[in-house]
Inverse folding.
């Protein structure tokens, strides 16, 4: 049975009284439609979020937001550099009148192609203007959460990225936005590949951040559990992302759970995790993912994860790993290039992947003539890194390459 076929066998679930309703703003909930069954406290914040929450990086329509709310999703993650995402959320907000029933997070970014994170050197006015622009696009009076986004994405030292984390101007702007009632909580996100764990540790220890959102899945994050424990002990809320380990198609086999459900349950079995954010593009995605809400990790889930690892373990570049960083004498930005290739191949996000690749200062163009691929030797997971970089350059380049 394939993942989409599994949808046909989904059980009917009834929405609980705590779920927000849309009234005339969207289709009424119908019998058999999967709904959120678990909500969790996000650290010391006043947010109780749906365990399966909505990543709006590939939002196709305002109706998807309304449909998700109708099925119990109450936390939505977007950004100015996610294309038309904020504008579509704004369209949905003109129809949904229960703002206090949902939580919306955005980023300190400009409205240009990803990555457009505000960098060191931006003024207090720049940070405030970025939030004001997000609020205007989304027809909102306030954001529940604003993120310093993708810390550790660029090939910078720990010290340089710590400057972005602890930038006094950014912190001053955030306090001003909180006092003005435009932002409730400050957060930081990281999917690596550079220094994910030490940077998140810095964020938690600083006392400035209410929430962290981190890449986390069953493949490889040996040091991250210690960061999660530290954050939980300090009351910092924790959200997981990149939970599908590349989101490659995986068939369901006899005795095994649906892979997506297994991957979500593995993440949510960690008591420090309040919820996960996953990109939802279609109604099928929404219905498939919500079937995992409120359910427990079981032996069939582990079987599904083992099957996935066996099929894709030597092809999936572990988000946040960073083993290969610094191995290339040409300075090729290995991990980010392979992540953009994943966006292209597995996420169906071709435009964003190509734009992000074009913005890199060190592309994979030297890889075609490389005679000593030290990157392959540096990979502790046995990936053919040099071959993957050459393929990525062919795929992601705007111009024709040999």
């Amino acid at each position: 049975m394939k993942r989409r076929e599994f949808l046909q066998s989904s059980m009917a679930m009834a929405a609980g009284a705590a779920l927000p309703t849309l009234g005339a703003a969207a289709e009424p909930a119908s019998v058999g439609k999967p709904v959120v069954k678990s909500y969790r406290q996000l650290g010391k914040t006043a947010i109780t979020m749906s365990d399966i929450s909505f990543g709006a990086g590939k939002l196709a329509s305002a109706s998807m937001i309304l449909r998700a709310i109708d099925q119990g999703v109450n936390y939505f993650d977007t950004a100015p550099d996610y294309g038309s995402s904020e504008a579509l959320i704004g369209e949905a907000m003109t129809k949904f009148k229960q703002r206090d029933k949902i939580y919306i997070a955005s980023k300190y970014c400009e409205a240009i192609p990803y990555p457009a994170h505000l960098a060191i050197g931006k003024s207090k006015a720049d940070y405030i203007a970025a939030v004001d622009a997000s609020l205007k696009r989304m027809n909102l009076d306030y954001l529940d959460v604003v993120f310093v986004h993708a810390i550790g994405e660029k090939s910078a030292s720990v010290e340089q990225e710590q400057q972005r984390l602890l930038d006094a101007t950014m912190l001053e702007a955030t306090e001003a936005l909180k006092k003005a009632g435009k932002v409730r909580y400050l957060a930081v996100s990281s999917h690596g590949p550079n220094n994910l764990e030490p940077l998140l540790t810095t964020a938690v220890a600083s006392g400035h951040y209410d929430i962290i959102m981190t890449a986390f899945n069953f493949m490889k994050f040996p040091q991250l559990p210690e960061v999660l424990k530290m954050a939980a002990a300090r009351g910092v809320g924790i959200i997981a992302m990149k939970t599908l380990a590349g989101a490659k198609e995986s068939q369901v086999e006899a005795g095994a759970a649906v892979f997506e459900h297994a991957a979500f349950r593995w993440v949510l079995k960690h008591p420090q995790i309040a919820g996960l954010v996953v990109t939802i593009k279609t109604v099928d995605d929404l219905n498939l993912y919500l079937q995992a809400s409120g359910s427990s990790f079981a032996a069939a889930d582990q079987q599904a994860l083992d099957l996935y690892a066996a099929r894709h373990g030597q092809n999936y570049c572990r988000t946040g790993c960073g083993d290969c960083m610094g191995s290339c004498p040409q300075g090729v930005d290995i991990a980010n290039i392979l992540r953009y290739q994943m966006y292209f191949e597995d996420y169906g996000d071709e435009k964003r992947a190509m734009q992000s690749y074009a913005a890199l200062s060190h592309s994979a163009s030297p890889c075609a003539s490389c005679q000593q691929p030290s990157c392959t030797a540096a990979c502790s997971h046995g990936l053919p890194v040099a071959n993957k970089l050459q393929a990525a350059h062919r795929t992601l380049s705007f111009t024709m390459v040999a």
